[in-house]
Design a protein that fits this description.
6-stranded parallel β-sheet, alpha/beta, 378 residues, binds thiamine diphosphate, Rossmann fold, elongated, 14 helices
Length: 378
């Protein structure tokens, strides 16, 4: 296995002095290591993978040195535009190393949303004419790949990629200590159960990518509630609120709720402006803010350093509430907001982490869709 520390040292020896990206489950130990050891000027957890390419581009323009962008291959799509129309050698010719966690690699069992993305990832890089090497966990090959990537990026003035297989990285040698949270703060799953128990029966819930969808699924089971009004957005991180808005605009009589994550809300923050300025569509947008990308390893987001509630207010939501973290307050506010028309926003502060035996939906995405549309379209 590749040591995160040794791999980072190999990159640093090649002059890589700035890293930015969105955390990934396969890269989580490397991400945790760089997050723990690098000073703020050397590392930024970006809002999305495309903005990370922008940051890396700016760093190179200002310093001439070689940046690294890290991401899960789910986020490759977010990078396509800035890689092809900014960093590409036929545009501004900006060298950078792109480290990609290869979920859904052929032959590796993975969730449905990763299968096609995994299969086409090499072809996408080929189509973008980005040279790449694959890291499978051999430490010497990884050090050699770091040298190759740096030399190639510099020689061609262009992005190059390293595709990382599952299990390639060993444990992070250093980790940032877990953030202190009040002992009374609700777990995200408990908050989701509270919300689903309080909402009117039959509310349409669009849940975001990662554990929020899985915990909604479990909560419905625990409460003995029907699951056919839930849309579990297993992929396309950051788009759940717009899916909910699309439904709400088309179905004025439905009680539509989006259960969003803070990382997901930040990833496509512009969606909040679209909701806030939408002339129609009754929608309750709830962000479960744990200040972390919990589903992929718990790396921090900036969502507890800013005010999502103030952003919602400034975006023009009709009603804005929170941040709340206390059980009785949450119950009362969800009950109140469910009765109010318009675009509504509620921020809940919850603790990071999930239970180890959290299940996964048994239905496939298309089965989920079939049940969902049958119920929604009535
Ligand atoms: C475009 C894209 N980038 C990255 C990922 C990997 N990913 C899945 S869930 C997740 C974290 C989500 O964080 P947040 O929305 O705050 O929810 P939490 O897991 O903390 O509940 C990430 C980074 C992805 N699925 N899609």
């Amino acid at each position: 296995m590749i040591s995160p520390k040794a791999f980072h040292a190999a990159l640093a020896a090649q002059g890589v002095d700035f890293l930015t990206g969105v955390p990934d489950s396969l890269l989580k130990d490397f991400c945790a290591y760089v997050d723990a050891v690098l000073p703020p000027e050397g590392h930024v957890i970006a809002a999305n993978e495309g903005t990370a390419v922008g940051l890396a581009a700016g760093h190179h323009l200002a310093t001439g040195s070689l940046p690294m962008v890290y991401l899960q291959n789910s986020g490759l799509g977010n990078t396509v535009n800035p890689l092809l129309s900014l960093a590409d050698p036929e545009v501004y010719a900006l060298p950078m190393i792109v480290l990609v966690g290869w979920r859904g690699a052929p032959g590796v069992k993975d969730e449905p949303q990763h299968v096609k993305q995994g299969r086409v990832t090499p072809a996408m890089l080929d189509a973008m004419e980005i040279p790449y090497q694959v890291l499978d966990g051999d430490p010497e090959a990884a050090a050699e790949a770091a040298r190759w990537a740096a030399a190639t990026a510099r020689a061609t003035n262009a992005p190059v990629a390293l595709l990382v297989h599952k299990g390639a990285f060993g444990k992070a040698e250093e980790k940032r200590p877990a953030r202190e949270v009040p002992a009374t703060m609700l777990a995200r799953e408990a908050a989701i159960r509270l919300v689903t128990a309080t909402l009117p029966a039959g509310s349409t819930i669009v849940a975001t990518t990662g554990m929020i969808s899985r915990e909604l699924y479990e909560s419905r089971g625990a409460l003995g509630q029907d699951r056919s009004s839930d849309f579990l957005t297993v992929g396309s991180m950051g788009h759940a609120s717009q899916i909910a808005l699309g439904i709400a605009r088309a179905k004025p009589d439905a009680q539509v709720v989006c259960l969003d994550g803070d990382g997901a809300a930040l990833m496509h923050l512009g969606g909040m402006a679209t909701i806030g300025t939408s002339a129609t569509g009754d929608l309750l947008h709830i962000v479960l803010n744990n200040g972390a990308h919990d589903s992929v390893g718990g790396q921090p987001t900036v969502a507890q350093q800013i005010s999502l509630t103030a952003i919602a207010s400034a975006c023009g939501y009709d009603v804005v509430a929170g941040p709340l973290e206390e059980e009785a307050e949450i119950r009362a506010e969800v009950a109140r907001l469910a009765q109010v028309p318009g675009r509504r926003f509620l921020e809940l502060r919850v603790r990071p982490g999930s239970r180890a035996d959290l299940g996964r939906p048994k239905e496939s995405p298309t089965e989920n869709k079939a049940q969902f549309i049958t119920r929604l379209r009535g």
